[in-house]
Amino acid sequence: MTEAKELLSEKWLSGNHISVAKRNKKLFLALFATLLLAAAIVGIVAGVNSRKNSDDGDLSASHAILKSSCSSTLYPDLCFSSLASVPGATAKLSSKSDVIEASLNLTKKAVRHNYFSVKKLIKTRKNLTKREKTALHDCLEIIDETLDELHKAVEELHEYPNKKSLSLHADDLKTLISSAITNQETCLDGFSHDKADKHVREALLAGEIYVERLCSNALAMIKNMTDTDIANESKTANRKLKEVDADEIKWPEWMSAADRRLLQSSSVTPNVVVAADGSGDYTTVSAAVAAAPDNSNTRDVIRIKAGVYRENVDVTKKKKNIMFLGDGRTTTIITASRNVGDGSTTFNSATVAAVGEGFLARDITFQNTAGPSKHQAVALRVGADLSAFYRCDMLAYQDTLYVHSNRQFYVGCLVAGTVDFIFGNAAAVLQDCDIHARRPNSGQKNMVTAQGRTDPNQNTGIVIHKSRIGATSDLKPVQSSFPTYLGRPWKEYSRTVIMQTAISDVINPAGWYEWSGTFALDTLFYGEYQNTGAGSGTSNRVTWKGFKVITSATEAQAYTPGSFIAGSSWLGSTGFPFSLGLLAARKPEEISSVFTAQSPVETLLNMDDPIKSFKGYGKVDELEEQAFRKRTRRRLFILVISAVVLLTVIIGAVAGILIHRRNNSSHSSSPAPATQLNPAASLKAMCGVTQYPTSCYSSISSLDTTNTTDPEVLFKLSLRVAIKELSELADELPAKLIAKTNDTRVRDALIVCQGLFEDAVDRLNDSISSVEVGHQGEKLLSSANISDMKTWLSTTITDQETCLDALQEINSTLLENVKTAIQNSTEFSSNSLAIVTKILSLLANFNAPIHRRRLLGFGGKFPDWVNSGERRLLEKSNATAHVTVAKDGSGDYTTIKAAVAAVPKKSETRFVIHVKEGKYLENVILDKNKWNVMIYGDGKKKTIVSGSLNFVDGTPTFSTATFAVAGRGFFAKDMGFINTAGAEKHQAVALRSGSDRSVFYRCSFNGFQDTLYAHSNRQFYRDCDITGTIDFIFGNAAVVFQNCNIQPRQPLRNQFNTITAQGKKDPNQNTGISIQKCFFSPLDNLTAPTYLGRPWKVYSTTVIMKSEIGAFLNPLGWKEWLSGVEPPSTIFYAEYQNTGPGSTVDQRVKWAGFQPSLTADEAGKFTVESFIQGSGWLPETDVNFDASL
């Protein structure tokens, strides 16, 4: 506990250090930031310095080294900003090794902080369950291991590159940091067993993810540095690995000659003897381990005599170079039964846990007798670096062998189990082993492996080499009822390779199985090379991008013990037999004999009751079939986005600015000291990303609570500034102006403003609540609520702009007065949106999936933000309604209005209204307090809501809607919405939606000008019909139309038709119109010029993709807003892979803001998945949709 003791004396929580765990609870894991963000930071630096120094020079040499080193990482902005924010740190950087060491030292501080966070949770969190307490103590153990690994890595750097070969230095460094990354995941995985655990997990998530990403950066820089150095050395020395006879039995070189003799010798003199009958020095294995010297550099051999030892044994990190020597795998058995079903964590369920470096075991059985109904129950967990197992058996069911971390080697062993029975994130090679699937519980599938690599630079994976994969005798007769697969991807970069192994017909022809839908299928690496046996055929294997049939011996060689676990440096010292290279080609008769000539292990497995023949396993009757509920365990892996991004980016940018400002332009050899970060500088840096930096800085700095450098706090203050300003407007401005006017039209427009202002305040409050959700004041930021905040802040801006539109369309003299009055609130809203968009949500736009380990993908269904019950409601032909509306009096109400009035306010559950066939002449409004309402009719041509309010007769466009919905989560199905005012009445809306996450399925919208007002928030339309003339799909929602019929109709004489008019006002709004796989055709006889759309606002965004466009369309495609005036270059209009006679783009407009042909990546940004985060809400509706192109 050396490192743990050190942390007790450090005041990590003092000063301006980053308190990550307090900033965020629920975070998504994912790809972190792009060079775009780095460019933004450099832009901030350049912008600020340009005000102070007209003669700005290049970055200092140390900054150049820092940026160069960080450029190779997955999270370059975190890398740069976290180091640049440490006063004086960058002045000491003169090499890549210096940058790595500084990064590791910073990481150690963050790890120590996490240690305190866990200790505090244990002390202060009430009502912790047994498993939660165990998981927290697991985390303390893991954190302590991480500190040791980081300390060793720093020591290794000090020796680099002179003490040993470059390749060994590289492998040791990569192993240490790979293990540190795995440890963070393991801590969080301990809270993934049930829903109750998630609250504790959330309290730790930010800190663990922060450390994991710091480690990831260090690992990437280590890999870049060592790869470069090895390549340079190879150029000069032409160095090659020593050739090894493929069939020669040798151990990795990291095992000394003495250890090798120990493992192979028939007579070994032990240091101590354990005997259950009292004839040795100890009667329990745990007592012998406890007596072993700590941190020994010499081998300590513990002989364990024949017997059954019922205990859980921990070989901790201090117990180095211990060897367990049994009397035989059938006679020396260590057994226990901890399991997740009874409240343990997977990590803590291990019968034997070996963590101390250099652990060896021979001639022993490790087993867990919990049985299949107890879920995860580990027989052996290994985190010991340079560990090896010879002639050992690992017997259990789910999660038998946990190859947790570091380098491991297994030879001549038996591993038997059911689900994920070899799993973890070590660099593990199993050679000459028997790997056998057992009969699982009814309804289960067997998975041989579940590898857990989370970072592409980790040197981890599971390799099965020259082994035999088969089935136990109880599974063989019924193997067709229990599909067995070689593995599935537990984590995003899962890596498993099976080479020159005999695979029996127990393996399903597909070979591999998905974890959850498409998760990791592109990023994993699963390989097979020269395998034999009935189950080795690859013609019917999965077709995943990440799966490969290896045909090159050179490529396969990378996964042999000699290459993959640096076996040539250590295995030889164990005395265990091994092979460093590939097998020589086998003769056909040798291949066929693999499963006929049985090894002693296979003979045992084919006994009538194989596992029970081992002493100590009699408690478990594996043939017993019990009722088994569907397993609930889901190993959660959350690609996450953290408020740490905001904190580190801003602090890093400010530090870079200040350090750079102090640099001497005269090329002085001694760099100036870094300036201490201060609250004003932090605020300026944050405001620098906004459109209105002056108002951002002045409004927030005027508060008396801004003595902080915490950008998350500053961001929250920006929201409070906007709320205060807009609340005062909503309370006073419209009411005062209404009292002063006698003009009915002006009054109506001001009433619209009043409602919009109130809605905008609600959206701001929703946003600030998103930052503050959590226990004990802890804040929460995830990719999901970042998307929510972008939507809500976009709506806030749209609401205020809509108020101005209402006044402008009647040419009110109050327009300029109101515009001036709302200038501050508009700017403040824009500032908050810019901060979210440019700093927090860049990663969300990376489209890195957030893996919730769903059993099924969402292809062909609605976005995930509609739950399964709602999906069934939308698909069900006769959903059960809470109330029924019928004109003939046969229902609960005769008008829709009356039914809506009965809807409870702000209901968290779905309220269903069935509107029977009929034409309902009424204007219906579901206000912002009517949440989660579903209205379904008897058909879009049978159940019709009809109105005729219009602009000409004195109604503001916003208020003309026949049907208007603002409450979140609105669904409509099989309904028709009509405005019958006619073309001569100008603006006349059939439906207006400002409902976030609203869905319209098999509905029709019939009108002329302004038929469908997609006002704001996220919306989805599927299988709908929309007809109209001018701007008949308009607004500023983030809206996607799929498989819809879009039909322009004949307008008034001398008019032209424009299908869309998108209203994006601010460049950071996440809004636009996306029309995908739809059908554009004329309604009746259409002769008027017709265009796809025109830009209503300065950042108007509309994309038409993979749709069929008829010949009616004007070849120009698009129309300017003002005749003869080209729209600004800030618009974004585009087309992608459309078909039909109107889809030709040769004669399209030549505007700067129009793209006639997008790439697939560009078009992908406007799909359901990316544009409206459809995977988060649509699948549950059961309304068909296409998530991607």
TrEMBL record:
Keyword match Hydrolase: yes
Name of the featured protein: pectinesterase
Keyword Chaperone: no
Subcellular location field: Secreted, Cell wall
Pathway entry: Glycan metabolism; pectin degradation; 2-dehydro-3-deoxy-D-gluconate from pectin: step 1/5
Annotated TM spans: 27-48, 409-430, 636-659
GO annotation, biological process: cell wall modification; pectin catabolic process
Location (main, coarse): secreted
InterPro entries linked to this entry: Invertase/methylesterase_inhib, Pectin_lyas_fold, Pectin_lyase_fold/virulence, Pectinesterase_Asp_AS, Pectinesterase_cat, Pectinesterase_inhib_dom, Pectinesterase_Tyr_AS
SMART domains associated with the record: PMEI
GO molecular function, one term: pectinesterase activity
One Pfam family, short name: Pectinesterase
Keywords associated with the record: Aspartyl esterase, Cell wall, Disulfide bond, Glycoprotein, Hydrolase, Membrane, Secreted, Transmembrane, Transmembrane helix
Top EC group: hydrolase
Gene3D superfamilies per record: Invertase/pectin methylesterase inhibitor family protein, Single-stranded right-handed beta-helix, Pectin lyase-like
Catalytic residues as annotated in Swiss-Prot or TrEMBL: D420, D1031
UniProt lineage: Eukaryota, Viridiplantae, Streptophyta, Embryophyta, Tracheophyta
Family: In the N-terminal section; belongs to the PMEI family.
Annotated source species: Juglans regia
Signal sequence coordinates: none
E.C. numbers: 3.1.1.11
Domain Pectinesterase inhibitor residues, every copy: 61-221, 678-835
